[in-house]
Structures are given as structure tokens and as C-alpha cells.
Amino acid sequence: MLVLMGPPGVGKGTQAAMLEAELGLPQVSTGDLLRSARRDGSEIGSLAGEYMDAGRLVPDELVVALIKRRLERSDAQQGAILDGFPRTVDQAEALQTMLAEQNRQVDKAVLLTVKEEAVVSRILGRLTCGSCSSVFHVKTNRPRIDGICDSCGDKLESRTDDNAEAIRTRLATYRASTEPVVGFYRSQGLLREVDGGQTVDEVFQGLQGALKH
Ligand code: AP5
């Protein structure tokens, strides 16, 4: 099981989708799972919505239950690329217990690093497909046709939490709650770091290198 970590907007989703194609393992993004639950109008989706729009973390028990169900699916039996989970030490411990019960484990945790100024412009320029979750950027990763997803042809939109106020909260939440997870994996010898401030292809090369050691 591979964990992809880093602040909001660093490029976790972009790189996880590329790794999915490369490694043949599914990208499992708690953000995407929660957004899909909201679109479906499910109870978990409506509970999560308020937290997400404000840039705060959805309570651990909801997210852990969601990820448990997802990792039980057949396509995740050989492993998965976890994008945006775990985000608290409690989530990391719950993941460890859950995997141990199935004789599985986290094999590596890769931290993508970047300066905060860079993530703000990445997030404010992001366009997301509500149907297939593909991600684009108005300057650095434009879709072939303006406003239309290259992958599925649906309409691209800005996420409801991609505004200046929610971004400030998301960055503060990352520092307070998620940075300790970096130490959790470092202390287990599982952490690798990749400079996420490079181009998409350079970051991907760095990731491939980090996964070999
Ligand atoms: P989530 O969806 O996980 O959001 P996030 O962590 O804030 O991360 P982002 O999706 O914003 O960024 P990313 O790193 O994936 O970057 P991307 O590849 O899109 O979570 C949303 C919310 O859900 C949370 O705030 C919380 O409420 C809730 N939640 C989710 N998981 C949770 C959990 N485990 N526990 C509790 N609550 C949870 O790239 C960003 C932009 O930059 C794109 O436009 C992209 O095209 C561009 N870009 C990417 N790479 C590069 C590059 N190298 N150079 C230039 N541009 C680039």
C-alpha cells in the first residue's frame, strides 16, 4: 500500500492518477470519495459537506469507515495508492490496524513538498471534472477544449473549497493535523520525500525514483 502525502494543491491527485496508470493499482482519494458521496446525496456526503467547504477535516470515524469499505473492494486487493489519507495520526493508526487484520501494510509514504505560495496559485487555477475527478489547471494543464474534461467530455468546474478563505484553513489544518503523520511514517523508516515544486513530469520521475529505494 502506498501513501501519497503533502499539502493541499501540491499535486497528489495529479501524480496519483499517473501512478495508477504506471503501477496498475487504483488511486483511492478520500477527497474524491467524499465529493462523490455528496453528489449521490448520501448521509455521509451531507455530513461531510460542511467540513469540506470550510476547509476543515471530516471526522476521523467517517473517513476511516469510507476507506475501509473502499479497500475491501476487489480492485484494491493487490494494493492501492492512497491520496489524501491518512491525514491525522489517529487515521494513520486506524489504517495500520485495518491493514494488519488483512495481513497487509503500508509499504511506503511519499511526501510531496512545495512552497505555500505555489500551492495557492495551483489551487486557485484548478479545474476539476465532477464526473471522473480528472484535474486540470487554467495555465499549467489546460484541457484540449476550454471548460470540457479531456477524459470523459463532461463540464469542468472549480471546487467549492477552492477559494482563498478555505485554502487558508486547509493549509493551517495541514500544519496542525497532518504534518505529525509525516513524523509517524518517518519514525517507521517508510517516508520518502520528493520536490513537488517541479513540473508534473519531473515530479513523476522523482516519485518513480523514490519508490525504488
Ligand atoms: P482533498 O480533495 O484531498 O484536497 P487536498 O488535500 O486539499 O488536496 P487537493 O485535492 O487540493 O490537491 P492535490 O494535492 O491533490 O493537487 P492536484 O493534483 O489537484 O480533500 C478535500 C477535503 O475533503 C478536505 O479539506 C477535507 O475536508 C476532506 N477530506 C479529504 N480527505 C480527508 C481525510 N483523510 N480526513 C478528513 N477529511 C478529509 O493539483 C492542484 C492543481 O495544481 C491542479 O490544477 C493541477 O493541474 C496543478 N498541478 C499539479 N501538479 C503541478 C505541477 N507539478 N506544476 C504545476 N501545476 C501542477
Please identify which CATH superfamily of the largest domain we are dealing with. P-loop containing nucleotide triphosphate hydrolases
User: Please, how many helices?
Assistant: 8
Rounded Rg: 16 Å
Q: What bound compounds does this protein have?
A: BIS(adenosine)-5'-pentaphosphate
CATH architecture of the largest domain: 3-Layer(aba) Sandwich
Count up the domains. 2
How many beta-strand elements?
8
What structural class do you assign from the helix and strand content? alpha/beta
Question: pLDDT below 50 for ≥5 consecutive residues: which ranges?
Answer: none
Architecture overview:
The protein has 213 residues and is an alpha/beta fold. The chain has two domains: 161 residues, P-loop containing nucleotide triphosphate hydrolases (Rossmann fold, 3-Layer(aba) Sandwich); 36 residues, no CATH class. 49% of the residues lie in helices and 14% in strands. The protein contains eight helices and eight strands; from the N terminus they run E-H-E-H-H-H-E-H-E-H-E-E-E-H-E-H. It has a five-stranded parallel beta sheet, sandwiched between helices. A hairpin with a 5-residue loop joins strand 5 and strand 6. Helix 2 packs across helix 3 and helix 4 runs parallel beside helix 5. It is globular. The two termini are 15 Å apart. The mean pLDDT is 96. BIS(adenosine)-5'-pentaphosphate binds next to helix 1, helix 2, helix 3, helix 6 and strand 6.
